[in-house]
Design brief:
GO terms for molecular function: DNA-binding transcription factor activity; transcription cis-regulatory region binding. By secondary structure, the chain is an alpha/beta fold. Among the domains are: 49 residues, lambda repressor-like DNA-binding domains (434 Repressor (Amino-terminal Domain)); 136 residues, Response regulator (Rossmann fold, 3-Layer(aba) Sandwich). The protein is built from 13 helices and twelve strands. Strands 2-1-3-4-5-11 form a six-stranded parallel β-sheet, with helices on both faces. Strands 7-6-8-9-10-12 form a six-stranded mixed β-sheet, with helices on both faces. The radius of gyration is 23 Å and the shape is elongated. The termini are far apart.
Length: 338
């Protein structure tokens, strides 16, 4: 049976984070003695108790790792899963894979199911709805159950957990700077995933690169919309009103749409307009013309996240969380030929 008062309730009453409450209840050395005392006194006053069923089940190894992905609409997550599976098998673990379809409700249901003792640890890329609502209580609850969680890919979230991903801001900054180094200045950005934290980091990288050296760029060059039709309309208007030289696209949909709209305007790629997309080798080389892309090395993300999770399973109660930021690289294909 659930507690009448939750970790989130205690955190709100004490004006501290959920993570601080959880660590205090578990006697973490990261938290001051005074804070630990306040948290425990309030928890006792409200008869707070953790989910003992989940805690007891956690003490027995299942040999399973739960993997939660937000969607399977692009091959990036399939690549990450390949890396996860490679490393999991090396360490004797089986995978249980769940798909949230970007839904907070589904994500909560999955986490509730896992908390019943189905897995020794969780690898997770949070859903778009979760990031938009900033509702993370169901994730923090796993610290109470002593079930380790490692976030991967979508690491631009306010969660004090282990994370493995890439530097989204720097990767786009580097892409824009490369285009500028070739003498291009009219560079647009196209994004269809504005709700995600990583998208904002990528947009920040674009803005930083475009503003150097302290030169303002037209706001219409920044094309962001979650609605494909609106995105297409904005992109068409920019191409009609400006002699654009290049685009940096932040996701699969925006890459495909940009390539199509540019060619529908009778513009040649790469002669008239160059493109660098945030996609991967599974389809970028097969577009016509092939699209240069930022390679995140998803297999490496999966392997690195799994290594970290296995370490947490075998060595519980870490003193501090770890954030591993892996390097990306630009793979040049037809769309950036000079």
């Amino acid at each position: 049976m659930r507690s009448k008062i939750t970790l989130k309730d205690l955190a709100k009453l004490l004006n501290v984070s959920v993570s601080t409450v959880s660590k205090s209840l578990n006697g973490s050395p990261e938290i001051s003695e005074n804070t630990v005392k306040r948290v425990k006194e309030l928890a006792e006053l409200h008869n707070y108790s953790p989910n003992l069923t989940a805690v007891n089940l956690k003490r027995k190894s299942t040999g399973n790792i739960a993997v939660i992905v937000p969607n399977i609409s692009n091959t990036f997550f399939a690549k990450v899963l390949g890396g996860i599976e490679n490393e999991a098998r090396k360490n004797g673990y089986q995978l249980i894979t769940y798909i949230t379809n970007e839904s907070l409700t589904v994500e909560k249901q999955i986490m509730e199911l896992i908390s019943n003792g189905l897995a020794d640890g969780v690898l997770m890329s949070v859903s778009a709805e979760t990031q938009k609502s900033k509702n993370y209580e169901h994730i923090y609850r796993f610290t109470e159950y002593e079930i380790p969680v490692v976030l991967f890919d979508r690491i631009n979230v306010d969660l004090s957990l282990d994370k493995v991903g890439v530097d989204d801001m720097q990767s786009i900054y580097n892409a824009v700077q490369y285009l500028k180094s070739k003498g291009l200045s009219k560079i647009g950005l196209v994004c269809s995933i504005g709700d995600l934290g990583l998208a904002q980091a990528r947009i920040d990288g674009y803005k930083a690169a475009m503003s150097e050296p302290s030169i303002a760029f037209p706001e219409e060059f920044l094309i962001v919309s979650n609605d494909p039709e609106n995105l297409k309309k904005q992109l068409s208007l920019v191409l009609e009103n400006n002699v654009m030289e290049a685009f940096v696209t932040l996701d699969y949909l925006s890459t495909l749409l940009t390539s199509r709209v540019v060619q529908e305007k009778a513009l040649n790629i790469p002669k008239d307009i160059k493109i660098i997309g945030y996609v991967n080798e599974d389809f970028a080389p097969f577009l016509w013309p092939s699209i240069s892309y930022i390679d995140q090395h998803p297999l490496n993300i999966g392997e690195t996240a799994t290594k970290l999770l296995v370490k947490r399973i075998k060595e519980p109660q870490p003193k501090e969380t770890v954030e591993k930021v892996l390097k990306t690289e630009i793979i040049h294909l037809d769309s950036t030929l000079l």
